[in-house]
């Protein structure tokens, strides 16, 4: 960005602005909607990453700024000198009920070069390198896992070198930089074209990537033989007719069944667990473990696409509720006291799920998930 700005001669002096110090415990954008979450991402020029992430449905706001350094309230001139250890970043506020953290990362990685740790396209220097600043262990695990899958996919011409960095503080960039692509359309268009970003992305994802977008998750699933299905929630009358009293209580009224007195807490069969209401694939026996709680526990879902999380304030302390995406069934809660590799414990209600044995998966339409048992 620095070289092209010099060519345009519209940013040759230090820019003034108002700065806000945002701590890891009080992300100012998270207050814009009750259960909003925040992702902090670095992908080179923040004008470009801001414009690309704001197009993702479910994103509430994107702010350009700086993170990763030690100097308080750095200016653009100081950061662009490369001496403050900051990186140009965007802070993305999103609604987790509409878009998952992985989907935010998916949009992010499809609009940057994650393989260059010395800059970004025409902008050179470590202050333009790609990075994911994770806000908690769950974000770290999701980012690590997703980046490993992208690397294995081999869609980029070189290995991914995007850093995972614990989030500490975020400093809002000068007003001049916010929504630059909207307020300075011609200059932004010239910069973006000259930077080489879109030429690179067209080579990687095809020149029809904007009109016919294919997500990285779709590519990964296709390479694994997985075809995503859009499940549907039955009508209320059908749900009442098909579910037992306990199943209805758990899934529709957010109830909890008794520990050690439910169908699957000690089930050791090979297979997958699907939503009792919609049939969405949720968890696999390959990720099931004995947690000692008396409920079926898993380290991760089969596919993040089919589960959503939200904050549950029913008890004195907040918990993270887990629901199915299309069936909108209450499944249970996820806690951060699980074993490796995720450190998570998805504590589910048996009454919210139906077990499909490995030998029945093909005939019941879940054959695409048999790869889970190949190892």
Automatic annotation (TrEMBL):
What are this entry's molecular-function GO terms?
peptide-methionine (R)-S-oxide reductase activity
Instruction: Give all residue intervals belonging to the MsrB domain.
Output: 236-358
Keyword Oxidoreductase tagged:
yes
Q: Which reaction does it catalyse?
A: L-methionyl-[protein] + [thioredoxin]-disulfide + H2O = L-methionyl-(S)-S-oxide-[protein] + [thioredoxin]-dithiol; [thioredoxin]-disulfide + L-methionine + H2O = L-methionine (S)-S-oxide + [thioredoxin]-dithiol; L-methionyl-[protein] + [thioredoxin]-disulfide + H2O = L-methionyl-(R)-S-oxide-[protein] + [thioredoxin]-dithiol
**EC?**
1.8.4.11, 1.8.4.12
Segments traversing the membrane: none
Tell me where the signal peptide lies: 1-24
The record, for InterPro entries, names: Met_Sox_Rdtase_MsrA_dom, Met_Sox_Rdtase_MsrA_sf, Met_Sox_Rdtase_MsrB_dom, Mss4-like_sf
| Catalytic center residues | 45, 347 (nucleophile)
Keywords assigned by UniProt? Multifunctional enzyme, Oxidoreductase, Signal
What NCBIfam families is this protein classified in? msrA, peptide-methionine (R)-S-oxide reductase MsrB
What family, per the record?
A: Belongs to the MsrB Met sulfoxide reductase family.
What is the role of this chain?
Answer: Has an important function as a repair enzyme for proteins that have been inactivated by oxidation. Catalyzes the reversible oxidation-reduction of methionine sulfoxide in proteins to methionine.
PANTHER family listed in its UniProt record: PEPTIDE METHIONINE SULFOXIDE REDUCTASE, PEPTIDE METHIONINE SULFOXIDE REDUCTASE MSRA 2
Protein name (record)? Multifunctional fusion protein
Query: What organism does the record attribute this protein to?
Result: Vibrio agarivorans
Q: What is the lineage of its organism?
A: Bacteria, Pseudomonadati, Pseudomonadota, Gammaproteobacteria, Vibrionales
- Gene symbol? msrB
């Amino acid at each position: 960005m620095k070289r092209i700005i010099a060519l345009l001669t519209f940013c040759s002096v230090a820019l003034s602005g108002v700065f806000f110090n945002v701590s890891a415990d009080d992300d100012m954008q998270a207050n814009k909607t009750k259960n909003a979450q925040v992702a902090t991402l670095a992908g080179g020029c923040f004008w470009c990453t801001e414009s690309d992430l704001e197009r993702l449905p479910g994103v509430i706001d994107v702010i350009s700024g700086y993170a990763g350094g030690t100097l308080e309230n750095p200016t653009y001139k100081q950061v662009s000198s490369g001496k403050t250890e900051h990186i140009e970043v965007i802070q993305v506020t999103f609604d987790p009920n509409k878009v998952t953290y992985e989907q935010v990362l998916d949009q992010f990685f499809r609009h940057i070069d994650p393989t260059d740790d010395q800059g970004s396209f025409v902008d050179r220097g470590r202050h333009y390198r790609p990075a994911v600043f994770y806000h908690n262990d769950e974000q770290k695990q999701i980012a690590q896992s997703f980046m490993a899958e992208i690397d294995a996919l081999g869609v980029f011409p070189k290995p991914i070198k995007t850093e995972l960095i614990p989030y500490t503080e975020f400093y809002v960039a000068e007003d001049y930089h916010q929504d630059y692509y909207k307020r300075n359309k011609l200059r932004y268009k010239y910069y973006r074209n000259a930077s080489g970003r879109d030429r690179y992305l067209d080579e990687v994802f095809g020149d029809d990537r904007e009109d016919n977008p294919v997500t990285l998750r779709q590519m990964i699933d296709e390479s694994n033989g997985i075809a995503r299905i859009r499940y549907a929630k039955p009508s209320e009358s059908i749900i009442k007719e098909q579910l037992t009293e306990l199943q209805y209580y758990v899934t529709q009224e957010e109830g909890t069944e008794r520990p050690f007195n439910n169908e699957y807490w000690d089930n050791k069969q090979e297979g997958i667990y699907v939503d009792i209401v919609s049939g969405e694939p949720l968890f696999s026996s390959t990720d099931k473990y004995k947690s000692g709680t008396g409920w079926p526990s898993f380290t991760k879902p089969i596919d993040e696409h089919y589960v959503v999380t939200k904050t549950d304030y029913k008890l004195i302390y907040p918990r993270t509720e887990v629901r199915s995406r299309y069936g909108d069934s209450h499944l249970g809660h996820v806690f951060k006291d699980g074993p490796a590799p995720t450190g998570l414990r998805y504590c589910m209600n048996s009454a919210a799920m139906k077990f499909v044995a490995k030998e029945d998966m093909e005939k019941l339409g879940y054959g695409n998930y048999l790869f889970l048992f190949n190892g």
